[in-house]
């Protein structure tokens, strides 16, 4: 894995990994409390729609995991705390009759990064103000049946609203995509797009046992 300094595309603030504890199944998640820094090993489920010119449009359901390193919170009080995040690993697998098995992983040349903070226009909710989570992600979509691995130059922006705990385990989220996100062929990175991601929804799962992280 490339270090942060070796990545050619940086979508946000780097978060240190050295000395940060790995957190697995059994780790408590406490509402309205900013936790200490950690690496969250979480389940992830998503529903993606791809448009492949000359082939068609396809809905694919994915299941897998994600590993997210979190910074120390900037404040001890929930309402004022901000937390920075980096994706350090992801593996999602989905099946499509037309596209075959699709495996989604992180683009190793990108620093996929984000932030959890209280919005500037917080809305009323149970207890203290809920937070919003966003993550800008660079992906590889391996599609062996097409003989291609696709990647996104523009980040996929994953967002979760109404965040009441960190990590937001069990929360639904959305990929913020304006109509279509171009996907390029890894073997011809400067060529025209060969596909598009047109929709993405996801559910963030809970902590996984270590043996479930490949």
Short recap of the structure:
With 214 residues, the chain is mainly β.
Please characterize this protein's 3D structure.
It comes from Nonomuraea indica. InterPro entries: DUF6073. With 214 residues, the protein is mainly β. The chain has no helices and 15 strands. Strands 2, 3, 4, 5, 6, 8, 9, 10, 11, 12, 13, 14 and 15 form a 13-stranded mixed sheet that branches. Strands 1-7 form a two-stranded parallel sheet. The model has no long low-confidence stretch (mean pLDDT 94).
Instruction: Please tally the β strands and state the result.
Output: 15
Q: What is the global morphology?
A: globular
Please count the helical segments. Answer: 0
Uncertain regions: pLDDT < 50 for 5+ in a row? none
- The topology string of helices and strands comes to EEEEEEEEEEEEEEE
Largest sheet, in brief, is: 13 strands, mixed
Pfam family, one: DUF6073
Protein name: DUF6073 family protein
Describe the SSE topology.
Elements: E1 9-10, E2 22-23, E3 38-52, E4 56-70, E5 83-96, E6 100-106, E7 110-111, E8 113-117, E9 131-137, E10 139-143, E11 148-151, E12 156-163, E13 172-176, E14 181-185, E15 195-207
Parallel strand pairs: 1-7, 2-3
Antiparallel strand pairs: 3-4, 3-15, 4-5, 5-6, 5-8, 6-10, 8-9, 9-12, 10-11, 11-14, 12-13, 13-15, 14-15
Features:
mainly beta, single chain, globular, two-stranded parallel sheet, 214 residues, 51% strand
